[in-house]
Amino acid sequence: MRAVVIHAPRDLRVEEMACGDPGPGEVRVRLGVGGICGSDLHYYQHGGFGAIRLREPMVLGHEVAGTVAAVGAGVAGVAPGDRVTVNPGVPCGDCVYCREGLRNQCLDMRFYGSAMRFPHVQGAFREEMVIAAEQAFAVGDAVTLEEAACAEPLSVCLHAVTRAGSLVGKRVLVSGCGPIGCLMVMAARFAGAQEIVACDVIPAPLALATRIGADAGVNVAEGAGLAGERRDKGRFDVTFECSGNPRALAEAVEVTRPRGTVVLVGLGGDVPLPMNAVVAKELHLHGTFRFDTEFARAAGLIARRRIDVRPVVTATLPLDRARDAFDLAADRSRSMKVQIILGT
Q1: What is the percentage of the chain residues whose pLDDT exceeds 90?
Q2: Residue at 45 is within a domain
Q3: Handedness of CA 171, 173, 178, 181 (dihedral sign)
């Protein structure tokens, strides 16, 4: 069984790896497709992000879908042959936050392809893997595995919507139109936003954002950008900041109306916060981290194409071209969501 393993920055290898049989309550999945996430790119380009660094070789990947190959004793929810998307997060179920229902804040979370703990949690870019049965969510036969593998990033966006509160009839800004930003446009539209404006500094992702649901796209690197949206103390009810850029955060505070909501979706370094404006405008400032029950909802919405994620997937490359796939994913002018074919 082959897997995509990162050893050091730019040292990406396809290696042979063993895969065992499922035990009680477990499922072996023959993986078909895996999507490259921003965190995967950070490991590939820099060997980590922030204080998190690679300390041993690690299989990358956590956005995957495939077909159930075998089930262990006691498994009733899925059967061999079922096509599934895989929830990459495994909370402990016993810490104070799990008991409070905040499982995305688990104190002992195991999340695929993460170097946050040591030994690292190995990822899912491999041809087969054994998972807990509750991690497998059936998607049926009406959608492709490429679509099903988008359940994880869509879950992130659905959770961000829950942090924002009702979007029905609201005027919404999505700042940063990478894969998460574009899926955020879709999630906001599904949640009832009346008008959605997307902004970025690159034309290609802006064009896609307007094609999939944004009413307008603004290139903030050209012309006046969002200057007109600062009138009357800001004109957006809700802003989803998906870039993690310090200037974008400052802009989000400027263009969000008094008592509006800014949801910080994108990860970045420590940045200055315009506290005077946040206080004076009585803004609601929310972080949003991963997801929990939203994964099941994302799988269902994709399976029924209530949210059609197909436009976001712009390239799918074979496993033996994993390095090319990562290089392409890093080029925002040529790609959106790049996926790797892990098997059939």
Answers
A1: 94
A2: yes
A3: negative
The count of domains in the chain is 2
Cα separation, 292 vs 158, in Å, equals: 10
Question: Is residue 141 within 8 Å of residue 15, measured between CB atoms?
Answer: no
**Domain residue limits at 39:** 2-150+309-341
Same domain, 120 and 163: no
Q: Which two tokens stand for residue 322?
A: 């994993």
Instruction: Give the separation between CA 223 and CA 237, rounded to whole angstroms.
Output: 24
Q: What pLDDT, in 10s, does the model give residues 320-337?
A: 999 999 999 999 889 999
pLDDT single digits (tens) 250-280: 999 999 999 999 999 998 778 888 999 999 9
Q: Look up the CATH number of the domain holding residue 196.
A: 3.40.50.720
* Full strand arrangement of the beta sheet holding 195-200: 216-219, 195-200, 171-175, 236-241, 256-264, 284-287
Q: How far is CA 243 from the centre of its chain?
A: 13
Contact 185, 196 (CB under 8 A): yes
What residue has token string 């490429």?
A: 146
Residues 183 and 109 in one domain: no
DSSP state of 312: G
What is the residue whose two structure tokens read 């909802």?
Answer: 297
Helix (H, G, I), strand (E, B) or coil at 236: strand
Contact 262, 256 (CB under 8 A): yes
What six digits make up the tokens of 335?
Answer: 């790609």
Do 144 and 18 share a structural domain? yes
Contacts 24+ apart (CB under 8 A), 208-211: 208/177, 208/182, 208/311, 208/312, 208/336, 209/174, 209/177, 209/181, 209/182, 209/185, 211/311
The crossing angle, in degrees rounded to 10, of helices 203-211 and 179-190 is 20
In this structure, the answer to whether residues 112 and 244 fall within a common structural domain is no
Instruction: Give the Cα separation of 247 and 197 in Å (integer).
Output: 18
